[in-house]
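Reply to dn_fold:

You asked what the input looked like. This is it:
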Amino acid sequence: MQLVDDVEPAPAARVAPRFIAVLTLAYVGAFIAFVPLLSLLTPMQAEALAPADKIGLLSLVSLWGAVTASLTNLAAGWASDRTRVRFGRRRPWILCGLVGVLLAYGLIARASTPVGLLAGVMAFQFAFNLLFAPLHAIFADLVPHEQKGQVAAFIGIAAPMGAASGVLIAAPFLSDIPTRLIVLGLLVAFCILPLLLVWKEAPPARLRKKAVALASPQGKGRNLDFGFVWASRFCFQISASVVSAYMLFYLADHARYAEQFPGSTVESGLARLIAFSTLLTLAAGFAGGLISDRFGRRKPFILLAAALLAGGLLIFAFYPQWPGPLLGYVFYGLGFGLYTTVDTALVAQILPSRRHTARDLGLMNLTNTLPAILAPVLAIAALGPDRSDWSMLMIVSAGVALLGGLAVAGVRMAR
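and this is what came back:
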């Protein structure tokens, strides 16, 4: 059986520029919350606490953090779908998650042992997903199909802005990790609070219990499309997780960044590379969202994104000497920006049920968290016993990205 709410049409009213602005800013805050933490500060903490096995500790922390994120996102999405309070069903969870993220930063700042770092990152993943599951559902709740590419183009700014914030967090004048986490917390609160204060969420309507027969071809088609898009994003995110978690060590151990640029730290070099690719990511994502709306097509852009992202990874594999890493980030940034924007629009367009938006997005979010579990396993296996075969890791990651592009070809209810 299928509930009436599941077969109602998607929202038809266009969303206003003011709403797009505060939603975009909140997305930026969400990505600032985790990107510099997991790509810069956590690896730095791992190296400080376990210099002899920094990759092993980072992989362990990433693994259990991802498990925590997966379970919490599903639970928070399910709970926010069913929340019935006068402040709305999404806003209370976003506020609780924001408070929890700030408290988790304090735990990570005080971590003095590997166990302390593990506990801090798991606490962060719990709190962050209390925030992100309902935040992500707002886009699918309110944005009509014909505006999804446009709004996705704006909120697509969030991922590169989160990456670019690493430039500030890695700045030399922020001398230690606790200070950097304080700055991070202020930035996150500044970005997310306007949505909570400005956007007035309508109280949710009472759930209707009337059911209708459900074996419709459209319902089955949406479930199948959901599976293809899930598989596509899963592959993409495995490749992205490898880059996010291990590029600091790639630059240090394989590209020998410090030897090529004496006087410059590896973390500052990585931050500058990310900042440069961010400009390309922004341009590619914004253009992809608008053009995909204009032509009413999503799949060709995702196939192009897969080719670009895989090309960047292959450059990392075969040309570690400068300017190889720079060129690799050009291709990677273009592919990542194009993919994240168009995929966001596609996912919201093919969700099986409007009544269970956050729950279904929680299932889709497993494509973000499960790859974070598998990426450390992939890295350890591909790098070999001496943790040095970086070319193999990048080649395998490129192949996985191409599989992600091919998977989306199976989608039938969106072009």
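The beta strands are 2-3, 211-212.
Hope that clears it up.
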